[in-house]
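Section 5: illustrative case.
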């Protein structure tokens, strides 16, 4: 029973077929002008239109990358005007973000701060959400000294599934931009949202919401790995992080992975069809809620993190304080249930999740947190078996493996 869909998802049969066909029939370089190259280009651009449709943006403003990490760092540092070979003038930039971000943004922000650049860590409530008006005030203060200000807040947390108020944040920053223009100030304020967990789970409209930079990865919505995407708002310019070629309209050098992108395009069409029907999301949410009720009945002391906040319908972060999550994940796997101790990027570490600690979760609860993430392929019968396996694993571990003090 695979319940680790926030880490990655199984590519659909149609996605695998598209990748295989492109590998066999359209393997030429899509930048080549001959017929074979243009066949690869056609499949690439067809997929780009599908990915752009999933994001709600013009295809010309969708940049293809190697994955979500590259896309997020291109968005943040590209919008700041920075590059690996030329940093902006000291004091010219400010990055505002949270300590609950995925490590692709959080660790990069820490490194940026350690290099001497201005980084502000935004306050959050107990669920890890920001206050849009408070963020706008912080951004206005940062704009007093910086020419470029980037606010980077994920749309949905990869561990808890809690949703951030991105439309309200976009509106608040839009108001700030108008205020700055009226005052004759030239500071650029941009909003980046890491939508890696959001895309394919709820409808997305970059232009409709007013987001400047949105990033994601195809393997999170049943596409192949190796395809990241960056959707740009109107008028947003980037400093490229990879140079040496004119690909992606000079925004990201390197030969595009056309076969994987072809599969990603199919995955985007399937995802858009799924999220467009509210009944699908409601059914998935009901499965998740029923699963959590089973867990509570089996172990009354369980802590359900994020409950009470708007969460993605597929995500459940469950803690048994006093047990070590990594040990529980191994025990679950032995019983045929695949789950995660927080983010997959952090698994293998016995340290509690920095995301949970940043939200004020105590160490015992953070140490015992196991993430179950569902998908459209998950069934009620499978969740019932998973709940029983979870209870059996917890009972077997008992107090023999307490969380580190």
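Designed sequence:
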């Amino acid at each position: 029973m695979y319940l680790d869909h926030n880490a990655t998802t199984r590519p659909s049969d149609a996605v695998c077929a598209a990748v295989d066909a492109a590998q066999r029939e359209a393997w030429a370089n899509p930048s080549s002008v001959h017929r074979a190259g243009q066949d690869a280009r056609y499949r690439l651009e067809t997929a780009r239109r599908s990915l752009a449709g999933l994001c709600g943006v013009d295809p010309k403003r969708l940049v293809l990358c190697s994955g979500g990490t590259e896309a997020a760092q291109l968005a943040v540092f590209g919008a700041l005007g920075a590059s690996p070979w030329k940093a902006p003038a000291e004091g010219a930039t400010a990055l505002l973000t949270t300590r609950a971000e995925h490590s692709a943004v959080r660790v990069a922000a820490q490194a940026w701060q350690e290099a001497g650049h201005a980084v502000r860590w935004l306050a959050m409530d107990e669920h890890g959400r920001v206050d849009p008006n408070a963020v706008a005030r912080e951004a206005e203060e940062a704009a007093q000294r910086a020419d470029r200000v980037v606010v980077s807040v994920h749309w949905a947390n990869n561990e808890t599934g809690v949703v951030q108020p991105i439309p309200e944040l976009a509106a608040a920053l839009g108001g700030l931009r108008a205020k700055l223009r009226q005052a004759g100030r030239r500071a650029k304020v941009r909003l980046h949202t890491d939508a890696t967990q959001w895309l394919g789970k709820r409808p997305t409209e970059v232009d409709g919401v007013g987001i400047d930079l949105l990033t994601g990865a195809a393997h999170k919505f049943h596409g192949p790995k190796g395809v990241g995407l960056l959707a740009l708002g109107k008028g947003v310019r980037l400093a490229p992080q990879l140079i040496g070629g004119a690909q992606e309209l000079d925004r990201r050098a390197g030969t595009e992975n056309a076969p994987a992108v072809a599969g990603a395009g199919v995955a985007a069409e399937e995802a858009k069809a799924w999220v467009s029907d509210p009944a699908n999301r409601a059914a998935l949410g009901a499965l998740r809620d029923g699963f959590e009720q089973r867990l509570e009945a089996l172990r009354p002391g369980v802590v359900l993190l994020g409950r009470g906040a708007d969460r993605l319908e597929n995500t459940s972060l469950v803690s048994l304080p006093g047990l070590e999550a990594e040990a529980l994940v191994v025990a679950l796997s032995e019983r045929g249930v695949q789950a995660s101790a927080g983010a997959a990027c952090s698994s293998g570490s016995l340290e509690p999740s920095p995301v949970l600690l940043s939200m004020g979760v105590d160490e015992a609860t953070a140490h015992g947190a196991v993430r179950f993430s569902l998908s459209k392929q998950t069934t009620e019968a499978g969740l019932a078996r998973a709940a029983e396996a979870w209870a059996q694993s917890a009972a077997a571990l008992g107090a023999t493996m307490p969380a580190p003090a």
